[in-house]
Write a structure and sequence with these properties.
- The protein has seven helices and no strands.
- The chain is an all-alpha fold and about 190 residues long.
- The chain is elongated and about 45 Å long.
- It starts with a helix and ends with a helix.
């Protein structure tokens, strides 16, 4: 799959989750949707930072937009990290989610814009390169972190070296959260 098509589909998937959050009324529904947003955006950011941004930056003379995108990811990861820890019943939960959403939509607009990073990638990379890059990114999805790590290095080689062990830890944490959430309603009966 073409790298840009893969990333664009990720954007659409998250936008659908944003819409579901807006329509949700119950805190537990908002929590479940937020957890999906956190996972999808964490994976998306990792495959962009580990594969897409370095590949595009290597072919560009001016790398300012790639550096800006990495910084936008850092702020998004901070917001996701905070949302992950914030109860859905907290008075500022919806506000924090909304601010995160607005920042993500701004980032998406910059990447997908007429002179954005995706168009620049199409200019500096040929179709075969974009397809091969997309295939590598798709294969990496299962081995990159699935939770936000705002203090982790955002660029290769360290993000790739740490990606697999952090991903394993993320899966253990996510499994534990799922077990705890399933057990709490059963204990209340």
């Amino acid at each position: 799959m073409n790298a840009i098509s893969l990333l664009t589909q990720d954007h659409r998937n998250v936008e659908q989750l944003f819409n579901r959050f807006e329509a949700a009324d119950r805190p537990e529904d908002k929590r479940a949707i937020t957890d999906k947003v956190i996972e999808q955006l964490s994976v998306h950011a990792e495959i962009e930072e580990q594969f897409f941004y370095p590949a595009v930056a290597a072919k560009m003379e001016e790398r300012g937009e790639v550096l800006e995108a990495v910084e936008e990811h850092h702020l998004a990861k901070l917001a996701l990290w905070e949302l992950e820890r914030l109860p859905a019943t907290a008075s500022n939960f919806d506000a924090k989610f909304t601010v995160m959403k607005e920042n993500i939509l701004h980032h998406v607009g910059e990447e997908e814009g007429a002179d954005g990073l995706f168009q620049q990638a199409r200019t500096v990379m040929n179709a075969t390169e974009l397809d091969e890059l997309g295939d590598r990114m798709e294969r990496a999805r299962s081995s990159v972190p699935h939770r936000p790590h705002p203090l982790a290095p955002p660029t290769p080689p360290l993000n790739r070296l740490l990606g697999i062990p952090v991903s394993i830890l993320d899966r253990v944490v996510n499994t534990g959260k799922g077990v705890a959430r399933a057990a709490v309603p059963m204990l209340r009966r």
